[in-house]
Amino acid sequence: MLLYYLTMVSRPAKSSFHPTRDLVVMFLARLALNLQYRVVYPFLPTISRGLGVPLETASLLLTVRSLVGAFSPVYGLAADRYGRRPMMLAGLLALSAGAAMITLAPGLRIALLAFALLGFSKAAFDPAMQAYIGDSVPYERRGRVMSLLELSWSLSWFVGVPVAGFLIARSGWRSPFALIGGAGALSLAALLWLCPQCGRSAFPTGRAALLRTFGRVPWRRCLPLLAMTWLITMANENIFIVYGDWLEKQFSLAVTVLGLASLVISVAELIAEFASAALVDSLGKWRSVFAGLILTLGAYLLLPRLAGSLGTALTGVALMFLTFEFSIVASIPLISELAPEVRGTVMALNVSAASLGRMAGSLSGPRLWAADGLPAVALTSAGFILIAALVIWFAREQ
Q1: Helix 310-336 vs helix 139-149: angle between axes, to the nearest 10 degrees?
Q2: CA distance 68 to 172
Q3: Which of these, 357, 342, 355, lies nearest to 76 by C-alpha position?
Q4: Which of 119-132 are b and which e, b meaning 16 or more Cβ less than 10 Å from the residue's Cβ?
Q5: CA quadruple 18, 19, 22, 23: dihedral, nearest 10
Q6: From CA 10, how far away is CA 139, in angstroms rounded?
Q7: Is residue 240 part of a domain?
Q8: CA 361 – CA 374 distance, rounded (Å)
Q9: Per the domain annotation, does 5 fall within a domain?
Q10: What per-residue confidence (pLDDT) applies to 387?
Q11: CATH code for position 110
């Protein structure tokens, strides 16, 4: 079914776009890239113990990863100037190198450097890939295609977290990164040899300086959407970074059980991504994003009330991730059409906004959790979502 939907795209004239080949290769590459993001969160307490540092210190790994990702606009400029493919290849190379370093990391300093490479990998690959899809797929169908490609996000959790829990229990916290490094190398080879023309110079800027491309961004139109991305990713990260510690301590879950319990998140995200694929193009991009934000606000406010038992807590977590994922996935095709002439730069700015949001959330979440527990974390995240909904409402009315 997934392959059917991915191939239901008209091939533009005079394009090197091959729907089946290109989308499948990019889907597999993003699966590897997303694995390195997803496996850290539920096992961050285990990683902190393995490194011999407190949870607050271990959270700096995520902060560094997000900080490097915040420089994504530079990578987007390069994607507009030199083509999509070189940046996609650079991202996959960094993924393989960073995962290999973590596998061999003797301490926190090398782990921080490795996480910086991992931050670059996704920040370089994602906007170049999204720009290539924006170049190649008509806007009226783009919501479906981009939503289905985002299934790589939920499937990376569905597959990666249980496998990581099993590997950590048997071979230690570094073992999942050996698997990620291998997957990254295979994805690099597939993109290199199977897609030799993929994403080359879709919107060349000639010999002009990169900053000239940056100056062509319609800031008044883009800033509200970028602010929304920053706010909702900060809200999600604020809870996500502590949810593993919350479940582990409140319900005394072993690391393998924690990994299996986390499958509920991937199921919720799968539902959200299929819902986005089915609804966003027909319902409308703006309307879909706003509706998703209102539902996400309700999910955050409900979470502390559902924390009494493992069953209700997992229900609350599922609602939170379902609504958040629908909102963020619905926003991608909308943002991809804000400035087609500098699409790579705009998509990179969006990735940067998300990275800055995650960085802020990774700093605030553990501190709110340590000070006042889950209610403070959930209420703070709900406040961020409310502001994001107001931003979208007024931006649409302009």
Answers
A1: 140
A2: 27
A3: 342
A4: bbbbbbbbbbbbbb
A5: 170
A6: 11
A7: yes
A8: 14
A9: no
A10: 97
A11: 1.20.1250.20
DSSP per-residue string spanning 282-300: HH-HHHHHHHHHHHHHHHH
Residue with tokens 């990702």: 69
Taking phi over 0 as left and psi of -120 to 50 as alpha, with beta for the rest, 137 belongs to: beta
Mean pLDDT of 93-116: 90
Element (H, E) at 329: helix 310-336
- Per the structure block, which two tokens stand in for 384? 């961020």
Paired tokens of 291: 């509706």
Q: Quick check: 347 and 76 in contact, CB under 8 A?
A: yes
> Within its chain, how far is the Cα of 41 from the centroid?
13
Structure tokens at 163: 């496998």
User: Do 45 and 244 meet the contact criterion of CB atoms below 8 Å apart?
Assistant: yes
What is the C-alpha to C-alpha distance for residues 389 and 229, in angstroms, rounded to an integer?
11
Give the model's pLDDT for residue 229.
96
Question: What is the per-residue pLDDT across 32-72, written as a single tens digit (0 to 9) for each?
Answer: 899 898 888 778 888 888 888 888 788 888 889 888 887 88
User: Would 204 be classed as within a structural domain?
Assistant: no
Give residue 149's domain range: 18-197+217-397
Q: What is the DSSP letter of 13?
A: T
Total domains present in the chain: 1
d(CA 390, CA 184) in angstroms, rounded, equals: 39
Average model confidence (pLDDT) for the chain? 84
Does any domain span residue 134? yes
Copy the structure tokens of residue 109: 């300093």
